[in-house]
Fold tRNA-dihydrouridine(20/20a) synthase.
Amino acid sequence: MQLNQSLEAKSPSRRFCIAPMLDWTDRFYRRFARELSSQTWLYTEMVNTGAILHGDQMRHLRFDPTEHPIALQLGGSEPADLARCAKIAQNWGYDEVNLNVGCPSERVQSGSFGACLMLEPNLVADGVKAMRDACEIDVTVKHRIGIDKIEDYAFVRDFVGQIAEAGCQIFIVHARNAILKGLSPKENREIPPLKYDYAYQLKRDFPHLEIIINGGITTVSQSIEHLSHVDGVMVGREAYHNPWILTGVDAAIYGHTAREQTRRGAMENLRPFIEAELSSGTPLRFIARHILGLYQGQYGARQWRRMLSDATLLKNANWTLIEQALNALEQGADARQSMTSEN
């Protein structure tokens, strides 16, 4: 179990966050992301309360101490269960516990949690209050701006107001409606129109609350623009597929002195973690799948992805495979540079 470091020192602000993404933001990706940005606020995948209360807590809750600041996202609706999980999150050392009120998948709806809870604000309020009573870390809510054909701003305004009265002070606003029937989770991230002005208006209507905006944000420059209206931004798939954008966050968003970073350097810094995991029995493929985007947009990116996703090469592989991929990429870049110079 992790030491509860979250209460010992104030963590960086949530000016820039990586969204919780199922099957993606596991502890291996988060450790990699932390190597690229020391300040970015990290979120786990959504973990349902039943998995924590009745399943393998080590599997679902384990994280590396370097991941701080880190939030646990919960899926659930039963206040007593949410309270118990919030207390467990605090004991494990998480800096925040977040309630998912935004996922539109039918599988999640069948468990009576996710975006469908926006239609039950009293239940969400009860859950938030129970969580706050059970722990001292931040309790936050991630939600949509509307459900199905409910597009009136007053709907999300009243939802936020009621949950705020229950004690929640931090809201992550995915600025799209959730369509509960007829659209896949992927389509729900793309088809409902983005309405950033709803999130901006929430900040104006509730200036004492911390409002973080999410949805369609792909660059640091876009993030800076949003920060003139709200308190924080949350970036999703772009931070996964093109993780090198995280290297610009600490300086541009948090005002830290920019540090020299190279992609090889990032991997070399991650090497002790990778080798420790391999020694404990973790297959390299569990880690390698999260670093495939490291060279996105760079010469040799395709070869990097091909080598580190090849099932034959990954079988029983160790750090040597990553070293070989790095060398192959750099040798190819040198050869290309030499040809360019000769021409």
Q: What stands out?
A: Confidence is low (pLDDT under 50) at residues 1-10.
